[in-house]
Amino acid sequence: MKCLFNNIDEWKIIQDKIEIKENRLAESIMSIGNGYMGMRGNYEENYSGDTHKGSYIAGVWFPDKTRVGWWKNGYPEYFGKIPNSINYIGIRIFIDDVELDLAKCKVEDFYRELDMKNGILNRRFIVHISDKKFEVNIIRFSSISVKELAVIKYSIKALNSDAKIKFIPYLDSNIKNEDSNYEEEFWNGVSSSSSEYRGSILSRTKENAFNTPVFTVGAMMYIKARGKIKDLSHTNEYNYCENSITMDILKNEVASIEKYVSITSTRDYKESELLGKCEDILNREISKDYDDILNEHTELWNKRWKSADVKINGDKSSQQGIRYNLFQLFSTYYGEDSRLNIGPKGFTGEKYGGATYWDTEAFCVPVYLGVADKKVTRNLLEYRYNQLEQAKDNAKKLGLKGALYPMVTFDGVECHNEWEITFEEIHRNGSIVYAIYNYANYTGDFEYIKEKGIDVIIEIARFWASRVHLSIKKDLYMIHGVTGPNEFENNVNNNWYTNYIAKWCLEYAVENVLKLDIEYSECIDRNNVTKEEVELWQMISKKIYLPYDDELKIIVQNDNFLDKEFIEVKDLPKENLPLNQNWSWDRILRSCFIKQADVLQGIYYFGNRFTKEEKKRNFDFYEKYTVHESSLSSSIYSIIASEIDDLDKAYELYSRTARLDLDNYNNDTNDGLHITSMSGSWLSIVHGFAGMRTWDETLSFDPKLPKEWRGYSFNISYRDNIINVDVCSDLIKIENLKGKPIKIIVYGKKYILEKYIKIDRNKFK
Q1: Which of helix, strand or coil describes residue 536?
Q2: One domain, residues 648 and 619
Q3: Distance CA 395, CA 534 (A)
Q4: What residues contact 174, with CB distance under 8 A and at least 6 apart?
Q5: How many Å apart are CA 338 and CA 346, to the nearest integer?
Q6: Same domain, 59 and 132
Q7: HEC string for 486-514
Q8: Which of 42, 47, 130, 356 lies most in the core, judged by the most C-beta atoms within 10 Å?
């Protein structure tokens, strides 16, 4: 674990010295985006040290051919990846004909800040060139008011002498993905052009043999120069264009440029229209003042924060962590486009391919339900509905009925190339259904189930019914050969979580089919559901085997889990951690160590089905063997810890969740941020400390306060209401900011929330 930035600010991430050895880590942490495109925190100017240049465009991907030593039937033919796209931030800088390179030049007073409140990346430093000193200031943002627009303002002030400054802003698509097989390049140049203050390129992904889309990306830049211009030139070549602007400045004068870049892709327009659209966008925007463009952007960020901010009193580190997580989550996805989803690394790196995982349904959906308009979550559900046919094809590859949603996808087709994940980690199907249930239960929009959701529910029920088998010996249905959420065990039998969520999916399918058959039979008829099929689902759900140990009185993770040699995490030498970077996979598979919440994931999903005592026994048993090497893990454990009143452990795990990337807990942040797991810090507070639940369509709270905090508050959107929850040491205030009076439960007591209620916490301690 290495925390680079010790200067803790509640609204900013501050880097107060240049990082050479840990530059990649700093680049990841300083990433920005706007839901349409984004980039790592690379420097605009040339940097000859170790760097991972990365800029990415939502929905643009490439099928990288699967390469394995032994092909198994059913392997996906390709691994879908988000290609590193056009470097659109680049500006080479020459001062008196010496190139500015932060890996080589003498630099002092380096300062960089990510302003999360306003969505801006600021940087300044003093550089020595020969005997001269210069103050450099850079501002960068990806506009959320104009999704196809990025803006950079680069200024240089001569501090002690006159100088010649040359700016070379450029666009470059001669790039490679770090995460590619055999260092294959993914792009071919189509065209490039340049003129005074302008330049453009078109690049197209390579043709592929898998009948997946070929994408073309268009980029155009316009430069505004501020200073005494001595010389102008421009040039272009394959996949590249640049402008060169030379200025002479006197001591204490400033030379600056503003670089406006528009990016478009064939996701939205025809290839022939791309550059025309870029030009239209730039012409409209550059007619405005820079400050006006910036203000439009910051106003929208402030609007987002007004509804979504979580305020923590008394703990700056926790405050910074939750805001950082929400900032990066919203920078990746804000629900505007139902064709898009949330990649595990977002726009910050290439690991995991940049595609859709079950993370979205399990971890991100609850957050967007709470902080955004319900259409955002509905778009996420429709993303899966629109891929139902591909999911049915995926099930057929296993010789099964119904639908198996992919572990990894861009377009509904499975594109993950690890067998143990692709065809064994089938529990993800359950989260697809759970998200539908969660959405309908939370928003009250049961029409969605009628219109689209029931089709998905039925096909997933069919999958589970064909995936189980009947044990004649025990007269119980079982599911063998699976990988549960704990990916440190592969090909196990009867993973409890998988079996339990299969059971629940079948129960939920039966419940909805029987209800809709009476109220809206058309949606049952269009899915050709028979009475016999429903009866089969009922029988299986009642007779699914669920591993349990009567002596320990705990749920058993899988059939053979208790046969392992047990060593607690605290007894492992620190140099062994993280295990996935230090142990062989064989050793990991044989060990008792758990990568992420598995049994606890099920207890979280179905918390009203387990007593507090059951939760405590299972938490106490499994927590001591869990290494949390999945970024998705600690938030679930934190929530359960709050439920069982272990607030010290809940706070510890919240801190790990909230500061996972900022403090580099898993020693892998240099690859990019863990975007989907960033939802976990919100869940740890709202579902954990505040105890918010919506069982049986009733909003309830069970607020608790860790001793490290003086208080916390947040807003949630629930159905037609906006509700503020404010918790301090002695008092809880819940205010109805918008909407009609609503029934709520606090500490088990029923209230009608009209305007606000105040509750003395001391009565419930």
Answers
A1: helix
A2: yes
A3: 20
A4: 238, 239, 240
A5: 16
A6: yes
A7: CCCCCCECCCHHHHHHHHHHHHHHHHHHH
A8: 356
CATH code for the domain of 760? 2.60.420.10
Pairing of strands 216-226, 198-205: antiparallel
Which residues does the chain have with pLDDT short of 50? 1
Cis ω before 578 (30° cut-off from 0): yes
Looking at residue 309, its pLDDT comes to 97
Closest CA to 633 of 591, 577, 576, 681: 681
| Statement to judge: residues 359 and 507 lie in one domain | yes
Give the C-alpha separation, 9 to 19, whole Å.
19
Q: Which of 636, 646, 640 is nearest to 706 (CA)?
A: 646
Closest CA to 189 of 86, 263, 265: 86
Work out whether strand 742-746 and strand 699-701 pair parallel, antiparallel, or are unpaired.
parallel
Which of 379, 531, 512 has its CA nearest to residue 450? 512
Whether residues 368 and 503 share a domain: the answer is yes
Task: Give the CATH number, domain containing residue 258.
Answer: 2.70.98.40
Please give the pLDDT value at position 312: 98
Distance of CA 144 to the CA centre of its chain: 18
What is the pLDDT, as a whole number, of residue 3?
72
The total number of structural domains that make up the chain = 4
Q: Are residues 508 and 422 in the same domain?
A: yes
> Is the CB of residue 79 less than 8 Å from the CB of residue 353?
yes
Does one domain contain both 556 and 524? no
Tell me which of 282, 307, 335 is where a domain ends: 282
What is the C-alpha to C-alpha distance for residues 653 and 640, in angstroms, rounded to an integer?
Answer: 10
Residue 565: inside a domain, yes or no?
Answer: yes
Q: Please check whether residue 481 is in contact with residue 424, taking contact to mean a CB–CB distance below 8 angstroms.
A: yes
pLDDT the model gives residue 764: 75
pLDDT (0 to 100) of residue 5: 87
Q: Are residues 379 and 459 in the same domain?
A: yes
What the block records as the tokens of 496 is 């409890």
The domain of 675 spans 547-684
Report the DSSP beta bridge partners of residue 752: 743
Does residue 27 sit within a domain? yes
> Which sign, positive or negative, has the C-alpha torsion 734, 739, 740, 742?
negative
Instruction: Specify the amino acid at residue 80.
Output: G
Please tell me whether residues 659 and 705 are part of one structural domain.
Answer: no
Q: State phi, psi for 760 to the nearest 5 degrees.
A: -80, 115
Q: Which residues participate in catalysis according to the annotation?
A: 487
**Cβ 709 vs Cβ 318: under 8 Å:** yes
Extended strands (E) in 11-77: 12-15, 32-33, 37-39, 55-57, 62-65
Last residue of a domain, one of 661, 684, 707: 684
Q: Which H or E run contains 322? A: helix 316-332
| Percent helix, percent strand, percent coil in the chain, to nearest 5 | 35, 25, 40
What is the gyration radius of the CA atoms in the chain, in angstroms? 27
Go through the chain and tell me how many residues it has.
765
Q: Which residues pair with 742 in a beta bridge?
A: 753
Q: What pLDDT shows up at residue 397?
A: 87
3-state secondary structure of 276: helix
Please give the Cα distance from 690 to 601 (Å, whole number): 19
* Burial classification of residue 78, based on how many CB atoms lie within 10 Å of its CB (0-12 exposed, 13-18 middle, 19 or more buried): buried
Query: Is position 477 within any domain?
Result: yes
Pairwise CA distance, residues 53 & 84, whole Å: 8
Let me know if residue 320 belongs to a domain: no
Phi-psi region of 624 (alpha: psi -120 to 50; beta: other; left: phi over 0): alpha
- Of 177, 158, 46, 20, nearest to 99 (Cα)? 46
pLDDT of residue 692: 98
Tell me the DSSP string of 361-408.
IIIIHHHHHHHS-HHHHHHHHHHHHTTHHHHHHHHHHTT-SS----SS
pTM of the prediction? 0.96
Query: Which helix (H) or strand (E) element contains residue 603?
Result: helix 599-605
The answer to whether the CB of 480 falls within 8 A of the CB of 424 is: no
Residues 6+ apart with CB under 8 A from 571: none
Q: Are 654 and 304 in contact (CB under 8 A)?
A: no
